[in-house]
Amino acid sequence: MNKKLADAINTQLNYEIESAHVYLAMQGYVATLGLEGFENWLGIQYQEELAHAKKFIMFMNERGARVEIRGFENPRNDFESLLEVFEVSLKHEKGVTDRINNLMKIAHELNDYASISFLQWFVDEQVEEEDNFQKLIDKIKMVSDGGGLYHLDKDLATRVFVDPNAQQ
Ligand SMILES: [Fe+2]
């Protein structure tokens, strides 16, 4: 694989692990609020980010590119509110989308069709990620009373991890 693209993908796979840490820290914050459903949901999000990193690692290995694991920034551990957790998450995911789009741009410049095909999965995944967080923000804003939040929390307790790498 072209070195510029391999380096950029390597940076991204490290960022996916960093994203996992971001959601793990958020899970710790919501645990202090006693919201077990949100705790579950963010724990699944953590697993998803690690699965994204794994997906990039498998691709790099398949293409004969060397994976290099680096150190990570400290995630944010404290928040003002449940709503802020998800507003920060949506902003984070929009940043990830920009990064994926940039990888796709490099792959196009290089006419690397295998990478274009591979990266399309992440382009589609980011549409879903942004939609998930936007919908949760809308729902959190909708539930003004404790009863509503109780039911939303119960809903989120049902999220289960589906390994994207096992679906192929
Ligand atoms: Fe991700």
Automatic annotation (TrEMBL):
Protein family membership: Belongs to the ferritin family. Prokaryotic subfamily.
Residue stretches making up the Ferritin-like diiron domain: 1-144
Molecular function terms from GO: ferric iron binding; ferrous iron binding; ferroxidase activity; identical protein binding
Primary localization class, coarse: cytoplasm
Species, as recorded: Candidatus Xianfuyuplasma coldseepsis
Pfam family, one: Ferritin
Coiled-coil spans in chain: none
EC number: 1.16.3.2
Subcellular location: Cytoplasm
A GO cellular-component term linked to this record: cytosol
Oxidoreductase listed as a keyword: yes
InterPro entries in the cross-refs: Ferritin (IPR001519), Ferritin-like (IPR012347), Ferritin-like_diiron (IPR009040), Ferritin-like_SF (IPR009078), Ferritin_DPS_dom (IPR008331), Ferritin_prok (IPR041719)
Name of the featured protein: Ferritin
A biological process term (GO) from this entry: iron ion transport
Keyword hit for Cytoplasm: yes
Keywords: Cytoplasm, Iron, Iron storage, Metal-binding, Oxidoreductase
Reaction equations catalysed: 4 Fe(2+) + O2 + 6 H2O = 4 iron(III) oxide-hydroxide + 12 H(+)
Transmembrane segments: none
General function of this protein: Iron-storage protein.
Source superkingdom: Bacteria
